């Protein structure tokens, strides 16, 4: 892909957009299909993951703002027709590092595309709410009836998600007021909420960890150039537009949290599992709500099973070194090897598991029991080898020092071996 950096203030991110999911129409069953290539991108992430999802009205510069998060004009496909360009959900295929987290940018299909089926639009928005760390909601700067109705719909959609006990499972919410041309109010959050007098905005603010509003003025270019924003040069844009984009992007990354599962940060591999469980629920026609606790539980079970298998294998590999070096070994050395192997395996285990404090304590106990069971197997191997060693040594002593004295011609001959024993 060609490179068209946005500014020096926002780091330029290399990579390409790839499809995360598609939707089968209602005529064909109405299901979300995840792309395996995108899931592999998530599964390669070992650090905590942070997901920024850009959603909102189609043909409002949503995908362009997603590109600015990557420090570029190009990237996610931009369209100049009356139809939306993004279909389904696209992700950037090269997650980048930011303050201890790997960041994935998601560009979501416009939620009010006239070609959409309503159930699909709702499912898309529910999924973005569930999986993002920060949700960027891109709307018209002059808030009209349509925008209020969309935000009212958002409060209703949130009610279709069964939250865990802690409501703060939802992301930070960032509202972008696009093409904002009015005088700046003292506080944009208060201005925005005041415009929502017909919406119970408490239903919006109570669900989200953090709530910010940023005005983005018009780019200040002609209509012809607006159709080619992916190749435009930054110095052709209105400096205030560039400044406001930089301010919004900088603050979004400054406040960006990792994706949590209860109190645990999700790595990419666990996020992929969580995403699959959410989609599985959304695709189930018998489900009326997306149950976050159920998706959490399935992800936790996946994580702990993977941790049990991986870390027990680490323990067994280290204990197996005793066999390679030859058994038996003295029991004090056996305990030393076990202690080193257990500490190494346990430290890896506690880094891999996720869940509540009570669950983690229970996982610790189960893992310890599994280690003891494995240790006992090695104990039996060493014990058997020790018995064989003693038996072979006794047989050798008997053959060399006792058996010859039992031969008929030697029965009454005192051998030096026994003479020494008698004298001592």
TrEMBL record:
Keywords: GTP-binding, Hydrolase, Nucleotide-binding
InterPro entries from the UniProt entry: G_GB1_RHD3_dom, Guanylate-bd_C_sf, Guanylate-bd_N, P-loop_NTPase
Database matches in Gene3D superfamilies: Guanylate-binding protein, C-terminal domain, P-loop containing nucleotide triphosphate hydrolases
Xref: Pfam families: GBP
GO molecular function per UniProt: GTP binding; GTPase activity
Superkingdom of origin organism: Eukaryota
Residues annotated as domain GB1/RHD3-type G: 46-265
Similarity section: Belongs to the TRAFAC class dynamin-like GTPase superfamily. GB1/RHD3 GTPase family.
Protein name, as recorded: Guanylate-binding protein
